[in-house]
Amino acid sequence: MANDAESPMESPIMLVDRQEAARLLSVSPGTIDNLRTRGELPSIKIGARRLYDLSDLRQYIKALKVIHK
């Protein structure tokens, strides 16, 4: 039987703008721009908006944990 309830780690929100990405990572929007420009944080562009996938933000955090162990 499939469970339709979402786990606490899942969210109906899939993409966030740079302001929200910055808030979630506790950095400035300029840092988000720098991470994107350096290829460290992928983004997608839909129309005029550049958006960030929450799974990419989580993956970035995981990578930092490995680097700083």
Molecular structure report:
This protein has 69 residues and is of the alpha+beta class. The chain has a single domain, classed as Multidrug-efflux Transporter Regulator, Chain: A, Domain 2. It has three helices and three strands; from the N terminus they run βααββα. The protein has a three-stranded antiparallel beta sheet with strand order 1-3-2. Helix 1 packs across helix 2 (29-37). The radius of gyration is 14 Å and the shape is globular.
SSE map:
Elements: E1 15-16, H1 18-25, H2 29-37, E2 44-46, E3 49-53, H3 54-67
Antiparallel strand pairs: 1-3, 2-3
Helix pairs in contact: 1-2
Helix and strand composition category:
alpha+beta
What is the CATH level 1 assignment?
Answer: Mainly Alpha
**CATH architecture descriptor text:** Orthogonal Bundle
CA-to-CA gap between the ends?
40 Å
Task: Tell me the fraction of residues in β-strands, as a range.
Answer: 5-15%
Q: Which consecutive residue ranges, at least 5 long each, have pLDDT under 50? A: none
What spatial order of strands do you see in the largest sheet? 1-3-2
Total domains, how many?
1
Give the H and E element order: EHHEEH
